[in-house]
Amino acid sequence: MAHRILKGAGVALAALVVVWGVLYLFGLRVLLTGAGMPYLAFMQTASAQADAIVQHRAEQAEMDSGAAPVAPEAGAAILDAPSTSTEPDDSASVAAVVSPAESASSWSDFRGPRRDGHYRGGPIKTAWPASGLTPIWQQPIGGGYASFVIANGRAFTIEQRGEQEVVAAYDVSTGREIWTNRWDAAFVEFMGGNGPRATPTWHDGHVYALGASGELRAIEGDTGSLAWRTNVLADSGASNLQWGMSAAPLVVDDTVIVVPGGEGGRSLVAYDRHTGATSWSALDDQAAYSSPMLVTLAGIRQLLVFTATRVLGVTPDRGEVLWDYPWETQLGVNAGQPMLIGENRVFVSSGYGTGAAVIEISAAGGQASVSEVWRNTRMKNQFASSVLHEGYIYGLDQSILACLDAETGELQWKGGRYGFGQVILAYGHIIVLTEDGDLGLVRATPTGHEEIALFPVLNGKTWNHPAMANGILLVRNLAEMAAFDLRPEFSVGGPDS
Question: Tell me, what CATH number does 190's domain have?
């Protein structure tokens, strides 16, 4: 009897292995949520996904070849309309250093020109129908977790297509692919997922893109041609992070700053943005997953850098440390962006039970110092970053949206389970892109969680940050991209808001 049971169990196990093998061939994979919970989902293989994109783009080109020519103005209309913002602008009390290119029609950096997740392009449509918004266009895209940057009517991102990393430029109005710049590279990581992570940066007609394995390229924004390239990990003698290079390049004056995390003063590196030559390097910190920022704190222009063990301010021309504040988490995973509060305070937050803090930077006699204002576990930004509106911090505490008083850290409310998604602030509202690919709108008010709408827009795991310029919202994930027109509709009664 025991023999028969064992034999039967062996046959059943063999059958399960065969079934799993067949399902695996058809794309069944074990994936992890942001909370680390496994689930099963059918995924295209990298090569099949790349082939599908090639076919889709070819079909678009064939369709376009038979269409009547479109005047340049028509294609650019979405991004050229002027807008006037009447919302309270937190920039009045936030000393972020703003690029001269900042305008309603540009989103030049990760999370916007100030890297703070705040869209300042004027009013948006907030009367979303219960059935959801209809996209302007929606189409397949390569893998990876990068977001878009937007300039001159084009959106730029980096994707995984088969065995290549691909920087692509798209027309914002139509979604049509304009050019690609590609190289052989395939970052594979089971827990987080495959593909490039770091959002490109647009500056002065160039796109600066960083691949998951350290490939850094300066690309002509008009043509997609290569200006220069290097590998930041090779240059700094650094090993890659477990989840890949994720920090967006930062353009400061005539340099492009990256955080490869090399030892011996090669953790923070500045390259000449025109030639790719190394301008300077500094620090010995292990890199994290947060992007450097250019800010002014306590009257001092500086780089705000979040490494695996601390948040610190350094000089933007040499990388000399002005101040630092210890901040350690499990596996050195600091991924959220620090956020400026007023002229001399910084909000910082991480997941894995770590929490959040506000620190204050003081300057006297040419020296800077730091002190802690408050610290708690009310906001744990594991993958996402928070936003600031009228003295209140809004962000995902792990997977639940929360609101804190920026002055005291006191929790105002928690509500809405959005998974490990992303948020941006626009016209007094929180736009939420959930981990499951739903798009939501929540009123930014400390009085309570007021969800206006929530509906599906993308299929599959979605950790990518939304981007927005002149009222056009762009979203993407590992397989799809879409655009939504959020410009208000004007009538005799005024704007629809």
Answer: 2.130.10.10
